[in-house]
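A further point concerns the way the authors explain their paired sequence and structure data. An entry of this sort, consisting of the sequence and the corresponding backbone structure tokens, reads as follows:
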Amino acid sequence: MKYDYHIIVIGAGSAGLVVASGASNLGAKVALIEGHKMGGDCLNYGCVPSKTFLHSAHTLQKAKKLKTLNHMDYDIQLDHVMKNVSDVISDIAPHDSIERYESLGVKVYEGYASIKDGHTVLVNNQEITGKNIVIATGSSPFIPDIQGLNQVDYHTNETIFTLKKKPKRLIVLGAGPIGLELGQGFSHLGSRVTIISRSKEIFKKEEPEVSGLMMDKLTRDGLDLKLGYKILKVDKKEESIFLHIEKDGQVEILEGDQILLALGRQANTSGLNLQALGVKTLDKGFIKTNNKLMTDCPSIYACGDVVGPYLFTHMASYQASIVIQNTIFPIKRKTDYTRVPWVTYTLPEVAHIGKLENHGDYDSHFIHLKDNDRAKANHEEIGFLKLITDKKGVLVGASMVSEHAGEQIALANLAISKKMKLKDFLSMTVPYPTQAELFQRLALNQLKDSFKDWQKNLVKKLFLK
């Protein structure tokens, strides 16, 4: 059968754009369908706006702490911050634009898609066919069923960057990455921020040293962390929002003027007709795939946030690369999630890759950030580097807390991918002063610890007479 396209991609976010451009560059005839904004969540509501916003907020916080700048006026207007956010989005947008992708040979359809069968998609009342269909429709904020919530003008990451006036009292529901990042950011800009979470701890997926460290830091930054609470209902009276919460049978009422929902994500699968196709979905609509990212319908693949399990832009790109290979070439490639890096962009950042210490019979190597000269020069208060090795000394995991942990974790990523041992860092010549020295310092510490007394005595006898 002859099809209109080799591949029909539904969704022009991170995953869909990589599939479309990559497949087109290999000579495939590609259709790309987008019903909302090119660039998806990452460009318009996620990575780009949030990190631009946090750069302003964190820079202000660091300036406040420098005694040499105490004469400065720290009153920052939120509309100026948000104008910078929109400017950065506009600067990056052409890279994800319809014009650019059509210049790459991709046919872009503006509209919402419905899948008729394993090879047919309906868009704008037009049927188009493809040998393969790739679903890359992403995710959106999960909106819980909370009494009274629909009566207030709440925000999510999709609307918070439209604020023009700084909230005096911001209530954040959820203590995951989005809640903690944006909550701390608004606190740095001068808002009184309260974060509510059902969980009794934060950073649960990190090494155990992280949670207490960051709780202390966020509290000292002025955030009120209410952990282990159940959300009962929301009321609004005049300009104030009242949140009713409960813990251990005790009900509290919090007052704020803005509320931010950061309670997880749900897959954008509504309207795709998946049930009729026999394509199974999981909790919150996420699409079930095999390790080749193929759905229960063999000609339909899915990648990015709509699949999970890691809702990161870099993982969407990784999955997209697998889909490109599996839809074009006969030799199929499987997903491998053993080296997934992630970063929470708080101040300081929390970064991780690979195994945690409690994942198996591993050795850990720990060093405080305060032992690093560059950290002292930067007046960084807290942080650490923790490397995990197997019994042969091969690096299998790393965690770091520092202002630039997200940049530093890439070094561990490379070392893990090359199956390097901790001692291999000793062969590096590291610029001074940098935080990369921490990797070498840990390697040196391990060498010192492994040097036995008999070895020292032998060196003395042979070479130190």
